[in-house]
Write a structure and sequence with these properties.
mainly alpha, elongated
Length: 130
């Protein structure tokens, strides 16, 4: 009788764990969907930021595409890890840019986001179903 009780409790705990892991993933996807979308505004803050970076505005558009695309991939079960990995790469670039171009301690923010995204990518990759 106790074996049956544990067998029934296990799937419920698995669902709770999945929901708890999905919440940070969904929050990160929505955050990057918003940030990436803002990069397309012709008169937004990002225009000035990318002017200071010095690669040209094409790089702002590329970053926006990667962030929106990565966020959308994170919302799909099979490609969540790919989206998180793409976004982690954009955050690695943001860390380097904050340090090299802006000489700013603000690099810690994209660094923390990158760590979160790497954790999500590893978790989603390890739990994917072929």
């Amino acid at each position: 009788m106790t074996d049956l009780k544990f067998a029934v409790a296990e799937p419920k705990r698995g669902r709770v764990q999945a929901v708890l892991m999905w919440l940070p993933q969904a929050a990160a996807a929505l955050l990057f969907l918003s940030i990436g979308w803002q990069k397309f505004a012709p008169d937004g803050l990002w225009v000035h930021v990318f002017d200071r970076i010095g690669f040209g505005q094409w790089f702002r558009y590329l970053t926006g595409v990667l962030q929106v695309g990565g966020a959308l991939l994170m919302l799909l079960p099979r490609s969540g890890w790919i989206g998180a990995a793409i976004l982690a790469c954009t955050m690695a670039g943001a860390v380097v840019t904050q340090i090299v171009v802006f000489h700013s301690p603000v690099a810690i923010i994209p660094g923390i986001l990158m760590g979160l995204l790497v954790a999500i990518a590893l978790w989603r990759f390890s739990t994917r179903h072929d």
